[in-house]
Design a protein that fits this description.
Layout: H1 3-25, E1 38-45, H2 54-74, E2 78-85, H3 90-102, E3 109-113, H4 117-122, H5 129-133, H6 136-139, H7 148-151, E4 155-156, E5 159-160, E6 162-164, E7 170-175, H8 176-181, H9 193-203, E8 210-213, H10 222-234, E9 241-242, E10 245-247, H11 251-265, H12 279-288, E11 292-298, H13 299-305, H14 318-321, E12 322-325, E13 327-328, E14 341-345, E15 348-352, H15 359-369, H16 372-379, H17 389-395, H18 400-409, E16 413-415, H19 422-437, H20 442-457, E17 463-464
Parallel strand pairs: 1-2, 1-3, 8-11, 10-17, 14-16
Antiparallel strand pairs: 3-15, 4-5, 6-15, 7-11, 7-12, 9-10, 13-14
Helix pairs in contact: 1-2, 1-15, 10-19, 11-19, 11-20, 19-20
Length: 465
C-alpha cells in the first residue's frame, strides 16, 4: 500500500500536464466526449498473462490500468479501463484488428507492428493522432524525447499515427581477438564498404575463420533484408520504397548486389551457410566460437544470442572480445539523408482507434503508457532500448553496447515501408542476394529482381529502375 501515493504523484503530474495542454488548445475541433466525467476505455495487445508476451500483459493489467484510473479519479473523472488480451500468431492478431477497425469497433488503444501502419492507413482504418485527439497529440512532451528517426516507426507520409513502443538497431559486430591476429585495430570503425572488405581480406589469412557474415538468401528470411540488404541499400542513399515507387534493379540495388558478390565471390563469406535452413543460428554459434570475424546483426544478437548468462550461443568473454561498429555508407556522405553511417530498425507502436468514443482520454491513456514512468515500469529493470532518450540514458547506463545503439545508431536509422506488399518485395530482394551469392552476375540478378518486383507491385510504372 505504501507504494501507491509515490506512484500516484508522478502519474497525476503527467496526466495534469497532458490535461493542461489539451485545455489550452480550445477551439471547435475539440475531440468528442472531452469533458465527460464517466469514461470507458479499452486497450488491446497481442499479449496475455501466462502466455505470449506475458510481462507486457501484466504491466497493463497491474500497473497501467490501476494508476491511470487512480489519477483520473483524482481529477474528478470515473474511468473504467479494460485490457483485451490476445495470444495468437501475429497475422491472426492483425486480421482481428483489421476486422474490428473495418466494422468501426475495436479497442481505443491498440498495439500494432510498425510495419502494419501504412497498410492500415491506406485501408482507411487509422487517422493521424492529431486528427483523432486534437492538438494535444502534437503537444505531448514525449515527442521531444523520441528522435525523429525513431518517430518514423509510427509515421506514414509525414503524419504521426502512433507512438513507438521500443526499437532496435543494426551494427557490425567483430571479434577483437581475431582482429589482433590479423593486424587490425581493436577500435575498428569502417568508413566505407571498401574498408569492410579490406578488413575481411586480412581476416582471410587466418585458418578456419570466415571473415564476413552478412545474411543472404531466402533461408535467412527477413533477416537477410533487415541485417544485410536494406542497411546496404540505405548506405547507397536509396530505400526499398520512396516517393511512391519501389526500388527495382537500379544502380543502387546493383551496388548492394555487387557488395554481396565481393563477399561471397571473393572468398570472404561462406555461401553454403546462406542456403542452410538453420544457417543464421549456425552463424551465431560460429561467431561465439571465434570462427567468424565480422557479423552484421541487430542489438538482439548482443542481448539474447551471445549474452554470457543466458544467451542461446553464450559467449563468456563477450564484453572483452566483441567489438561493435556503425554500418558505414558505401562511402562517406553516400547514405540516406547524406549520412556517413546507416542502420535499419523495427518495432511496435501503439495507435488510437479513430472510432473511440473518448478520443481525448484515449490519448491521455496512450501518453501515460509512453511516459518516462510508464516506459520504465514496462521495462521492469530489463536493459532494452526504448523509444525515449531520457529512459535509455537511465536504464542502459550499465550496458555500453545498448547505449551505443541508443545514442549513436538510432538517430540515423531507417524503417521498412509499412505497406502490405512489402514482404513480397523483400523476398524478391532476398532471392537476388541468393543469386549473386551463388555465382550469378549482378546484372542477371538485378534484371530478374526488376521483373519480379514489377509483377508484385502492378507494373513498371510503380518501380524505379
Amino acid at each position: 500500500m505504501s507504494a501507491k501515493p509515490r506512484h500516484a504523484t508522478g502519474v497525476l503530474a503527467a496526466l495534469t500536464a497532458i490535461t493542461l495542454t489539451a485545455t489550452a488548445c480550445g477551439g471547435s475541433s475539440e475531440p468528442a466526449g472531452k469533458d465527460a466525467k464517466n469514461i470507458t476505455l479499452t486497450i488491446t495487445a497481442n499479449s496475455i498473462a501466462g502466455g505470449k508476451n506475458s510481462a507486457g500483459a501484466e504491466w497493463i493489467e497491474k500497473w497501467v490500468i490501476p494508476r491511470f484510473v487512480e489519477a483520473q479519479k483524482a481529477k474528478g473523472v470515473t474511468a473504467k479501463v479494460t485490457f483485451l488480451p490476445s495470444g495468437v500468431d501475429d497475422e491472426q492478431y492483425k486480421t482481428k484488428l483489421s476486422l474490428d477497425l473495418r466494422s468501426k469497433g475495436g479497442a481505443d488503444v491498440m498495439a500494432v507492428d510498425g510495419i502494419w501502419v501504412g497498410e492500415f492507413v491506406q485501408a482507411g482504418y487509422l487517422k493521424p493522432l492529431s486528427e483523432v485527439a486534437g492538438d494535444q497529440a502534437d503537444k505531448w512532451e514525449g515527442w521531444s524525447q523520441i528522435p525523429d528517426s525513431v518517430q518514423g516507426l509510427g509515421t506514414f507520409e509525414d503524419k504521426r499515427y502512433g507512438i513507438p513502443l521500443g526499437t532496435d538497431g543494426r551494427v557490425l559486430y567483430y571479434n577483437k581477438k581475431l582482429f589482433a591476429q590479423a593486424g587490425l585495430s581493436a577500435d575498428w570503425q569502417p568508413k566505407s564498404w571498401q574498408e569492410i572488405l579490406d578488413a575481411g581480406a586480412k581476416l582471410k589469412a587466418l585458418p578456419g575463420v570466415t571473415p564476413i557474415q552478412i545474411n543472404a538468401g531466402t533461408a535467412m528470411g527477413e533477416a537477410t533484408s533487415m541485417q544485410g540488404a536494406l542497411p546496404l541499400l540505405v548506405g547507397t542513399g536509396g530505400e526499398i520504397w520512396a516517393d511512391g515507387k519501389w526500388a527495382g534493379g537500379n544502380q543502387r540495388v546493383k551496388d548492394v548486389l555487387d557488395f554481396y558478390t565481393k563477399v561471397y565471390g571473393g572468398g570472404l563469406g561462406d555461401p553454403k551457410l546462406q542456403q542452410e535452413a538453420k544457417g543464421r543460428d549456425k552463424s551465431f554459434a560460429e561467431f561465439a566460437a571465434g570462427r567468424i570475424g565480422i557479423l552484421a546483426e541487430g542489438d538482439y544478437f548482443w542481448r539474447s544470442v551471445i549474452s554470457p548468462k543466458d544467451g542461446i550461443a553464450k559467449m563468456p568473454d563477450r564484453d572483452t572480445t566483441v567489438g561493435y561498429a556503425m554500418i558505414p555508407a558505401k562511402q562517406p556522405g553516400a547514405g540516406i539523408r547524406g549520412q556517413d553511417f546507416v542502420s535499419m530498425s523495427g518495432g511496435g507502436v501503439r495507435v488510437l482507434n479513430p472510432n473511440s468514443k473518448y478520443p481525448s482520454q484515449a490519448f491521455e491513456l496512450l501518453a501515460f503508457m509512453h511516459s518516462a514512468e510508464g516506459v520504465k515500469a514496462e521495462l521492469a529493470g530489463e536493459a532494452r532500448i526504448s523509444a525515449r532518450t531520457d529512459v535509455n540514458k537511465e536504464v542502459l547506463a550499465g550496458d555500453p553496447m545498448l547505449s551505443f545503439v541508443a545514442e549513436k545508431v538510432l538517430p540515423l536509422t531507417a524503417y521498412r515501408p509499412p505497406l502490405a506488399v512489402y514482404p513480397q518485395v523483400s523476398v524478391a530482394l532476398q532471392e537476388a542476394t541468393a543469386a549473386v551469392a551463388s555465382g550469378k552476375s549482378v546484372d542477371e540478378a538485378a534484371g530478374a529482381y526488376q521483373k519480379k518486383v514489377e509483377g508484385i507491385v502492378g507494373g513498371p510504372g510503380n518501380v524505379s529502375s
